[in-house]
Write a structure and sequence with these properties.
single chain; about 70 residues; alpha+beta; 4-stranded antiparallel sheet; about 15% helix; about 30% strand
């Protein structure tokens, strides 16, 4: 039985991770944005992206318009 190894970092609000010496991936909580052969490439890609902040789920507001 083999054990998976997880390497995880954060850059600009993005997760930069590698599982079991596989490709380095740049992700948000819901999306994978790219996969790279080296950690340096993945970190450079994450650094080039605009800062990421997860959006809070807000209920729809019931705005009334005055006529």
């Amino acid at each position: 039985m083999s054990v998976s190894m997880l390497n995880k970092m954060h850059m600009n609000g993005y997760d930069v991770l590698s599982v079991s010496n596989g490709p380095w991936r740049v992700c948000t909580q819901g999306d994978q944005l790219g996969a790279f052969a080296s950690r340096e490439e993945a970190l450079a890609f994450a650094a080039a992206l605009p800062g990421y902040k997860s959006r809070a789920k807000r209920p729809a507001s019931n705005q009334t318009t005055v006529k």
